[in-house]
Amino acid sequence: MMIHTNNYILNIKELWDDVPEEYLSHKERYENAIKKAFIVLKVLRQLHTGNIQITDHRTPTNVYSIQDGIFRNVNPLLIHIGLFWSTIAAQASTEQQAEWLQPDSSMIGTYVQTELGHGSFIRGIETTATYDSTTDEFILHTPRLSAYKWWPGGLGNTANACLVMAQLYINGTCHGLHIFLAQIRDFDTHKPLPGIKVGEIGPKMGFNTADNGFLGFDNHRIPRTNMLMKNVQVLRDGTYVKPKHDKLTYGSMLLTRVTLISDLAYQLSKAATIAVRYSAVRRQSPIKSNEPERQILDFVSQQHKLFITIASSHVYRVVGLWMWNSHKRVTADIHEGNMGQLPELHALACCLKAISSRDASALVEQCRLACGGHGYMMASNLPQIYAYTTAAVTYEGEYTVLLLQTARYLVKFWRLAAEHKPLPQNFAYFEDYIKKNFEQWRNSPEGIIEGFKAIVAGKTKAAYDTLQCNLRNGREFEEAWNMASVQLTNASEAYARSLLCEVFWKETVQLSTKVSKSLAIVLEQLAELYLMYWALEKHGDLLLYSTISRNDIEALQSRYEELLALIRPNAVGLVDAFDIRDEVLCSTLGAYDGRVYERMMEEASKSPLNEDVVNESFHKYIRPVTMKNKL
Ligand SMILES: CC/C=C\C/C=C\C/C=C\C/C=C\C=C\C(=O)SCCNC(=O)CCNC(=O)[C@H](O)C(C)(C)COP(=O)(O)OP(=O)(O)OC[C@H]1O[C@@H](n2cnc3c(N)ncnc32)[C@H](O)[C@@H]1OP(=O)(O)O
Ligand SMILES: Cc1cc2nc3c(=O)[nH]c(=O)nc-3n(C[C@H](O)[C@H](O)[C@H](O)COP(=O)(O)OP(=O)(O)OC[C@H]3O[C@@H](n4cnc5c(N)ncnc54)[C@H](O)[C@@H]3O)c2cc1C
């Protein structure tokens, strides 16, 4: 059947709420979301099997992005779709995939790793999987309360199967973390299987349409063949066949970190669309006292808050794609047995996931503030976008913990540089910094990129020197590392920013050769604005580590203000170009037609508190007091 997918989904009535979901109870929210999730899943399956086809020019990602409008929050099957299947596809053997990856599978799964006691430090995970060679089974067990799994999306009520991360024991030897497929609920009755204690963890700051859950195993047995065996095997006699790299088990986290960068770009484009369109409609105060009130978008300070959000959305889209292509390349190499590029990919994914999530949540909040009081309304959708975005700072690798992973990589190259050993080309600037081969400052995108590299070198050196000093003072390495950790995370953050600037600028310059001249001008203005913004934000670091002068900073400031003025006439066009439908934006402030106040009033009329002219609490609580006082 040939179907225009967007319209098809938009026309499925059950997917769209009459009552805004904020007015539903915790239970109703889940039930409403799960109803919709299975309609969407059916559409995705039909797309997958070719039973329906897309006829518009866009890609199936549209089906995913339109979900933001359907759920307003999050699809409770996100982990089933995004992590469960992809982990099986990446980590299960060919035979396992043939058995488990059936389009009509009864399994609704989730990814179960985090425990009550351990999230970041996954080597500390306490759930065990002990091989019993007499029955050819693994015994999954939760030894104590802290080992209860806690957080996985969809686990609370929806999933009947899961991929569980547990410590593998064979004949008393621990072989570390491995992934196992476990059925947890009966496929027919949906009741938890014997030996399974499972439930939902309760309301959260966001993600309340997803049933995040807890799970404990009481000596729950699964077949040996349920361990994911593409990269590592346990044979029938209990022989352990090691993987080619001991972190291949962490592959799903790596992939999700890469994917998240693009998802965050999309969240940023939603927030920018709402705030920019609203700022074009909203008038507040004249600029000159004898003039009418101006669109708030004309205030330069408002442009400063918003244009960086537009630019950042482009940065993360471009860098997300760049990382996606790197991931594809490295995965193909790994397939051929070459693990050489994995450490670099991991280091890049860690710092870019950390900084993209932190930037995105800060900028979404900035967009909310830029909408004044109306941005605080749930109907603006900015609070929901913020709650969704800020969760990404924590899940899939917590911010600081990931920055410290990248710091290990930077310190390795600094050590090589300090010992005058050969460096890869992309770290040649470490050697230049040591030899004090400083370039003369240039007030240009290329100059700023060089300046950021000098900051990375300077901060890595400072962290490394502190580390060495701690070691010389007799500290053990881990302790010395912890003592230097503030400086180490600073170095990683700078590294991420230098990558973002360099990749974005180079990709924009390349893209500019392929589009019309007028579009190229706007794209380059946005890219330049991004670099100038961060150069000004980090001017203290530039003064410390590069050859920039006070005069240069003043010139940067002028150019930055010039760019704000140049972008202003295109601001609304730029957010319209994100092409996000009103049904997905779900915002009274950001709709395409600009009917902000009308929509706000329409939404207010849906409040249950407006159902009765006089609420019954008046008779119960207010009147007895106010009337008594009158007497
Ligand atoms: C779903 C996708 C679709 C769309 C996305 C959109 C939205 C998403 C929406 C919702 C998301 C909801 C779900 C969230 C799910 C989760 O959160 S799942 C749980 C995630 N948990 C974590 O991320 C835990 C973080 N911790 C770790 O990753 C590790 O503990 C660690 C911090 C990396 C440390 O590991 P470990 O202790 O084993 O390591 P060390 O012994 O210290 O050795 C470190 C060396 O190992 C190298 N390393 C580490 N990880 C990797 C890797 N993945 N690949 C390659 N190499 C790795 C590291 O470089 C060190 O190397 P060395 O310096 O040479 O020693
Ligand atoms: C919305 C949401 C969805 C989630 N979905 C899933 C899921 O589907 N499946 C799943 O398995 N998990 C899931 N998680 C769990 C998530 O992966 C963890 O919360 C995350 O990995 C952080 O771990 P933690 O909560 O234990 O934080 P902690 O590690 O306890 O962090 C707390 C603080 O300690 C600091 N800290 C910890 N270790 C170090 C260190 N070595 N050095 C310096 N500082 C440190 C951190 O920086 C942080 O400030 C989800 C979480 C959320 C919020």
UniProtKB/TrEMBL annotation:
The alphabetized UniProt keywords are:
FAD, Fatty acid metabolism, Flavoprotein, Lipid metabolism, Oxidoreductase, Peroxisome
Q: Where is the Acyl-CoA oxidase C-alpha1 domain?
A: 250-411
Q: Where is the Acyl-CoA oxidase C-terminal domain?
A: 445-625
Q: In which pathway does it act?
A: Lipid metabolism; peroxisomal fatty acid beta-oxidation
Question: What's the superkingdom here?
Answer: Eukaryota
Q: Where in the cell is it found?
A: Peroxisome
Cofactors named for this entry? FAD
Q: Which PANTHER family match?
A: ELECTRON TRANSPORT OXIDOREDUCTASE, PEROXISOMAL ACYL-COENZYME A OXIDASE 1
Q: Which family does it belong to?
A: Belongs to the acyl-CoA oxidase family.
**Stated name of the protein:** Acyl-coenzyme A oxidase
Top-down, what is the taxonomic lineage of the species of origin?
Eukaryota, Metazoa, Ecdysozoa, Arthropoda, Hexapoda
